[in-house]
Design brief:
Order of helices and strands: HHEEHH
GO molecular function: calcium ion binding; calcium-dependent phospholipase A2 activity; phospholipid binding
Main location: secreted
CATH topology: Phospholipase A2
CATH architecture: Up-down Bundle
Distance between the termini: 14 Å
Protein name: Phospholipase A2
InterPro entries: PLA2 (IPR001211), PLA2-like_dom (IPR016090), PLA2_histidine (IPR033113), PLipase_A2_dom_sf (IPR036444)
Number of domains: 1
Cofactor: Ca(2+)
Strand order of the largest sheet: 1-2
Largest sheet: 2 strands, antiparallel
Strand content: 5-15%
Number of strands: 2
Helix content: 25-40%
Length: 118
């Protein structure tokens, strides 16, 4: 999804800024791409919360597989997705659209083993 919309491999976002990948916490947001990651984390947290769509899901939204499509302009979540799949998909659509709107700054990218796999 990110590759389609932002034209960058999703794994390359790991270790970008302070909020892309497994880092985060209370560190400051360094730029708008990092803010995309920060907001994506918050979206997943909301979906995983006690009243969230993924509250009963064993793996939560991070590892939920879902149906989606790309028409060359817009990303679409599949209508057949259950509530958790839809929540996860919508979080990812928002993030992919955000990444596509903001420039990548290589100064904020820290090396990650995922870079080799991307």
């Amino acid at each position: 999804m990110i590759r389609a919309k932002a034209q960058r491999e999703a794994l390359l976002y790991n270790n970008y800024g302070n909020h892309c990948g497994v880092q985060g916490g209370n560190e400051p947001v360094v730029d708008e791409v990092d803010r995309c990651c920060y907001n994506h984390d918050r979206c997943y947290i909301q979906a995983s919360g006690s009243n969230g769509s993924c509250s009963s899901s064993w793996f939560g939204p991070s590892f939920t597989r879902y149906s989606w499509s790309w028409d060359g302009t817009l990303l679409h979540c599949g209508e057949e997705n259950d509530d958790c799949e839809m929540a996860s998909c919508l979080c990812d659509v928002i993030a992919a659209n955000c990444f596509a709107q903001h420039p990548w700054n290589s100064e904020h990218k820290h090396f990650s083993i995922w870079d080799v796999l991307a």
